[in-house]
Design goal:
The chain is 71% helix and 2% strand. It is mainly alpha-helical. The protein has a two-stranded antiparallel sheet. Belongs to the neurochondrin family.
Length: 581
């Protein structure tokens, strides 16, 4: 009878509606019970559970977390204690029982399971292993990293040795496989190499970690050297990829992990990365253009190389690396000649659409917002280093249009300050280069953009009461938490604004109406000593350009105590500008 029951359940699982029905009708808890009771056929209960988790993992954990945890508890206990082939069989089974959310570490029973898995893996990986034994152990470790980062590895010297060993083994595996000239060899190892990528990505993060680092400096130096060799192998492999292989999820995993390395390690493998750039741009473009409507949907972060229904977004992982590279001449020239700016403008428009597609308000900080910020960083590099490109490439005039429209929408959203700062500063810096274009000749969208930019710039500082009486200038409370990310952009924005004043005849008037009054209000209240040199220079830059712009502007500044400020704050250039007839 028990055999018949298992046969029926297997048949239901194999149908389209079956898994959902099984989960909602309580099958998961019954199968967990059957497995834990170790009665007749309990191994078949485990097989069915594996099948259900493979199809509906999130639903199973939502409904039956305590029962599944009990099974994980038994499996992790068996894994730690077994001394024979069972240990390696469990390495294959355990990943299916490790949920990606909520994290196991939030629960005491979950934490115990993690500790047993850590100890079991430490025993396994410290032994001499054959290939067939090491692969499942690496996959299990990668699965734990995806679910809990490095939290499952205890602090202290044992933990740091284990972490270094994991990353080391992963790098060796990547080199052995990807430096292999035989493509058939690589084919069979894709799943384990993808797992190794997850471990290497953790290695990069741990080498960068400054607060409570798990690794000592010496270990970090050694790992960076070993990882560099592994990335040499990844680049070697990617350089041989043929056009017809571009849809392979393993290529995506390889590009993604290389993106993580390029984002952090800018000086190593520079030559090799430059040679690979044409491929990376072509690959990112192909994936983006084939998957545009859905390129924005969240990527399933799976170890499995089966791939998902959604075209993955490779650009998202390459942007930070591109941001570093556009600051340097040779890689920038390669990116420009491969058409990266046009692709990035398209991508920016697409991600802006994703961010604003939620009705009512913008979605909270998402990968779309992070991508937009990094893309702005790339464009800022191009504006500074290749202004002629901005003038000549039509792509940038359409980007300018979008920036003009997007800033007024973004400004009222208080929790998007870093993106606001990026868009305001980029827009101001591009306006300086594209000042002669029709869209900036006092059009409603130009006026709205500059109105929003002035608001962003003028609201950054406020007068704050000092304990001993009097007032000092301070960063506004609304800007305080993001100031580390925003301050450099704010200063750049002020500089760009000063540059726009002589180029846009309608702009000085707009500045006099709002910005000058706000500044006057601030400077007449605070003690001069509370303004540092950099801030005084930023204000003076705009005031000087205004004073030069016209006699009415000069008169307005004088009416707002301009001469006194010049005296009090040591603004020599302003004093000179105001004394000219």
């Amino acid at each position: 009878m028990i055999d018949d029951v298992y046969q029926c359940l297997s048949a239901v699982l194999a149908t389209a509606r079956g898994p959902r029905e099984l989960v909602t009708k309580g099958t998961v808890s019954a199968l967990c019970q059957a497995y834990l009771n170790c009665g007749y056929g309990s191994d078949r209960a485990l097989t069915l559970l594996l099948g259900l988790l493979a199809i509906a993992e999130a639903k199973c954990w939502q409904r039956d977390a305590p029962h599944l945890l009990a099974v994980l508890s038994k499996l992790s206990d068996d894994f730690l204690k077994s001394e024979d082939i069972t240990k390696f069989e469990l390495c294959e089974i355990l990943p299916h029982f490790i949920p990606l959310s909520p994290p196991l570490s939030q629960d005491s029973q979950g934490s115990e399971c993690l500790h047993r898995l850590y100890k079991g893996l430490a025993n396994v990986l410290a032994s001499k292993l054959s290939q067939s034994q090491r692969d499942p152990a690496l996959k299990l470790a990668a699965c734990l990293v995806q679910a809990c980062g490095s939290e499952w590895i205890p602090a202290g010297s044992d933990g740091s040795k284990f972490l270094a060993l994991l990353v080391n083994l992963a790098c060796v595996e990547v080199r052995l496989t990807l430096e292999e000239p035989d493509p058939v060899e690589v084919e069979g190892k894709k799943e384990v190499v993808t797992a190794c990528y997850v471990l290497i990505e953790m290695g990069i993060q741990e080498c960068l970690r400054e607060e409570k680092p798990m690794l000592e400096e010496v270990q970090k130096m050694q790992l960076m050297r070993i990882m560099e060799e592994a990335f040499g192998a990844v680049i070697f492999y990617l350089r041989q990829v043929k056009e017809e292989e571009l849809q392979d999820p393993f290529i995506f995993a390889s590009v993604r992990v290389l993106g993580a390395w390029m984002a952090e390690e800018t000086s190593s493998l520079k030559q090799e990365i430059c040679e690979l750039l044409p491929f990376l741009v072509h690959y990112a473009k192909k994936l983006f253009q084939e998957g545009s409507p859905t390129a924005s949907l969240p990527q399933p972060e799976l170890i499995s190389t089966e791939g998902s229904a959604l075209p993955p977004d490779a650009l998202r992982f390459l942007l930070p690396g591109f941001c570093h590279l556009t600051a340097e001449d040779r890689p920038r020239d390669i990116l420009v000649s491969e058409g990266a700016p046009a692709l990035l403008c398209e991508y920016f428009l697409h991600q802006w659409g994703v961010l604003t597609s939620k009705p009512g308000s913008l979605a909270p900080l998402t990968s779309a917002e992070m991508s937009l910020q990094t893309t702005c960083g790339i464009f800022l590099n191009l504006v500074v280093t290749a202004p002629d490109l901005i003038r000549q490439d039509k792509t940038f005039s359409s980007l300018m249009d979008v920036l003009l429209k997007s800033l007024p929408l973004l400004l009222p959203q208080k929790d998007h300050l870093v993106l606001t700062a990026n868009i305001a500063t980029l827009g101001l810096m591009m306006a300086r280069i594209l000042a002669s274009s029709a869209v900036l000749q006092g059009t409603p969208s130009a006026k709205e953009f500059f109105g929003a930019a002035l608001q962003f710039l003028s609201q950054a500082h406020t007068a704050q009461a000092e304990p001993g009486g009097g007032w000092a200038v301070a960063v506004s409370p609304a800007y305080a938490s993001a100031w580390a990310d925003v301050s450099e952009l704010w200063f750049l924005g002020m500089q760009a604004l000063a540059g726009c004043v002589p180029l846009l005849p309608w702009l000085p008037q707009a500045l006099l109406q709002g910005w000058l009054q706000d500044l006057s209000h601030l400077l007449t209240r605070v003690a001069p000593a509370s303004l540092d040199f950099e801030l005084v220079a930023a204000f003076q830059g705009v005031l000087v350009e205004l004073a030069r712009a016209s006699t009415s502007c000069r008169a307005a500044i004088l009416a707002h105590h301009g001469r006194e400020w010049a005296n009090l704050y040591g603004m020599a250039a302003l004093e000179q500008g105001l004394s000219k007839p």
